[in-house]
Design a protein that fits this description.
- With about 525 residues, the protein is of the alpha/beta class.
- The protein has three domains: about 300 residues, FAD/NAD(P)-binding domain (3-Layer(bba) Sandwich), CATH 3.50.50.60; about 110 residues, Flavocytochrome C3, Chain A, domain 1, CATH 3.90.700.10; about 90 residues, Fumarate reductase/succinate dehydrogenase flavoprotein-like, C-terminal domain (Methane Monooxygenase Hydroxylase, Chain G, domain 1, Up-down Bundle), CATH 1.20.58.100.
- Helix content is about 35%, strand content about 15%.
- Strands 1, 2, 8, 9, 10, 11 and 18 form a seven-stranded mixed sheet that branches. It has a four-stranded mixed sheet with strand order 19-17-12-22, with helices on one face. A four-stranded antiparallel sheet has the order 13-16-15-14, with helices on one face.
- Helix 1 links the parallel strand 1 and strand 2.
- The protein starts with a strand and ends in a 7-residue tail after the last strand.
- Bound molecules: flavin-adenine dinucleotide (FAD) and succinic acid (SIN).
- The site of flavin-adenine dinucleotide has 43 residues, from helix 1, helix 4, strand 9 and helix 11.
- Succinic acid (SIN) binds next to helix 7.
Length: about 525
């Protein structure tokens, strides 16, 4: 089938929904999303959204904290846009009905690592769920927007499929091929403007705070279509996910440390004293590395996060979900410390774009965690990602609306998806085993601490795996799992490639072969572009 709209939005997290609501003022919008509409990283965001909202704070201070966390690699113009536009975009969320927590009638601001003041708006410890709820409610009332759940984008449509000639050497995006798992059909969703916002790639790693949707589909699709991607070596590991023997990693928000929680090793020592004067509220790269070192030095599987000095009522009120989830795991956080470990959490790099979200592919914009806007540099400041998503979505709509009328639909020249010669497969073990292999090797060789030897070993194994997966992909009738596996493999390879290019340690990228930072004048983003994702 063919579906046609002015705007195609791929993903229904905060970036996609914010873009869709604004784009609908200018034309028709189709949103496709691969699970239920709320299932996204957004829906699990706990701590909150950062912005200058109190008289004791300033734009300069938020800018400075963001730059410090980014460790010399942030793009200053992007950070300025984020921080300056942030308060107005958050006010729009409030006007839409997002119920941020209040104290004595005023919005309550909390603190997280790397922030020099209390500046984070939150909705208890389920901020993302509240934002997602409000956005979806507004969207359901909008006649210009149609949402298609359980539809998985496979590839962006460009001249590669139409056989047309690229203008000035840059591909143009005409929409996407989309799998409908129920009918097993691959539909064509055509659009003038495509907004790619499929979230992050935490599932590349064995242990992650991310839900299953986070398989880096957008980064992989954009890369295959010939877009420039960048800074993928900067995978952020959140310092404190709940350690459970089952392997399930539930996030213990940084706001818990902002509320006074202490990090202890198993000997009971407050070890952050030895790593950073900001102690538990140092930036995430520093805290995660410190925990990793403590665990390795002491041969422990976890460290402890102790908030038991805070009264139970206060903990239940401030962190109801964390309190209940820990209780279900047999931990009463008002009486005993929480075992925690770092886990892959956030992709700081992504598809390269400008201050309006425009990519190197015509009519393709990116947003949210899929985008590499330059805001986060080598390490994202806590609670800046929800903010980045709404600030960039606004800018993208402004920019796209101006050119919408000058774009003509391409409908006739878009061929159907070609699946001749493919067969159904019963070999599910190949898919599940490959998933596990990639996640394990990325965790072991491309984790918090890296080295040339480990990266080279990871590259060799990934090259071999990718050949196998490509061959399987070409002869097999597509399923959501096969599509995700192929994307995961490409993104893992891109992370390794970026990590091998960076010959220094900075922010989230630490390698024992180059433990120092390059001098300021020599620092660069790691950019990569090659059609068909050949790397
Ligand atoms: P997502 O919210 O992940 O949405 C992506 C969407 O794309 C989903 O709907 C998904 O189903 C869809 N999709 C993916 N692939 C396809 C495909 N092939 N076809 C169709 N649809 C597809 N950030 C903060 O700023 N503050 C916080 O407090 C915070 N807490 C967090 C807590 C947790 C546990 C996690 C995991 C992240 C947290 N983050 C936080 C990070 C933040 O939540 C994310 O970066 C942000 O929500 C990303 O939004 P997004 O719209 O880009 O992507
Ligand atoms: C958290 O609540 O610790 C997550 C915040 C973030 O990822 O920005």
């Amino acid at each position: 089938m063919i579906f046609v709209s002015d705007f195609l939005v791929i993903g229904s997290g905060i970036a996609g929904l914010s873009f869709a609501l604004k784009a609908a003022k200018h034309g028709t919008v189709h949103i496709i999303t691969k699970k239920d509409s709320a299932e996204s990283n957004t829906n699990y965001a706990q701590g909150g959204i950062a912005a200058v909202f109190s008289p004791g704070d300033s734009l300069d201070s938020h800018i400075q904290d963001t730059l410090t966390a980014g460790d010399g690699l942030c793009h200053p113009d992007a950070v300025e846009q984020l921080v300056t536009d942030g308060p107005a975009r958050i006010q729009e969320l409030i006007d839409l009905g997002v119920a941020f927590s209040r104290k004595n009638g005023e919005i309550e601001l909390v603190r997280e690592g790397g922030h020099s003041v209390h500046r984070i708006l939150h909705a208890k410890d389920l901020t993302g769920r509240e934002i997602e709820r409000a956005l979806l409610a507004a969207l359901h009332e909008n006649e210009n927007i149609q949402i298609f759940e359980h539809r998985q984008a496979i590839d962006l449509i460009t001249e590669h499929h139409t056989g047309g000639i690229m203008k000035e050497g840059h591909p143009t995006c005409f929409g996407a091929y989309v799998l409908n798992p129920e009918t097993q059909e691959i539909d064509r969703f055509l659009s003038k403007i495509t907004y790619l916002c499929t979230g992050g790639a935490g599932q590349v790693y064995l242990h992650t705070t991310n839900p299953l949707i986070a398989t880096g589909d957008g980064i992989a699709m954009a890369c295959r279509a010939g877009a420039t991607v960048g800074n993928l070596e900067f995978m952020q590991f959140h310092p404190t996910s709940l350690y459970s023997k089952s392997g399930r990693r539930f996030l213990i928000s940084e706001a818990v440390r902002g509320h006074g929680a202490l990090l202890l090793n198993r000997a009971g020592e407050r070890f952050m004293e030895r790593y950073d004067s900001r102690m538990e509220l140092a930036t995430r790269d520093i805290v995660a590395r410190a925990i990793d070192r403590e665990m390795k030095n002491n041969g422990d599987d976890f460290v402890l996060l102790d908030v038991s000095h805070v009264p139970e009522d206060e903990l239940r009120d401030q962190f109801p979900t964390i309190f209940e989830t820990c209780l279900k795991e047999g931990i009463d956080i008002s009486r005993e410390p929480i075992p925690v470990v770092p886990a892959a959490h956030y992709m700081c790099g992504g598809v390269d774009c400008d201050l309006t979200g425009k990519t190197s592919i015509r009519n393709l914009y990116v947003g949210g965690e899929t985008a590499f806007t330059g805001v986060h540099g080598a390490n994202r400041l806590a609670s800046n990602s929800l903010l980045e998503a709404i600030v960039w979505a606004h800018k993208s709509v402004e920019d796209a609306a101006v050119k919408l009328n000058s774009i003509r639909f391409q409908t006739r020249s878009i061929p159907e998806w070609d699946d001749k010669g493919t067969v159904n497969t019963e070999e599910w073990i190949l898919v599940s085993h490959s998933f596990h292999e990639i996640k394990s090797l990325m965790w072991d060789y491309v984790g918090i601490v890296r080295s040339d030897l480990r990266l080279e070993r990871a590259r060799r194994r990934m090259d071999f795996l990718r050949d196998e997966i490509e061959e399987f992909y070409k002869r097999t009738r597509l399923t959501p799992e096969i599509v995700e596996l192929r994307n995961l493999a490409l993104v893992a390879s891109l992370i390794i490639r970026c990590a091998r290019i960076r010959k220094e340690s900075r922010g989230l990228h630490f390698t024992t072969d180059f433990p120092a930072k390059l001098p300021d004048g020599e620092v660069q983003d790691t950019l990569w572009c090659d059609e068909n994702g050949k790397i």
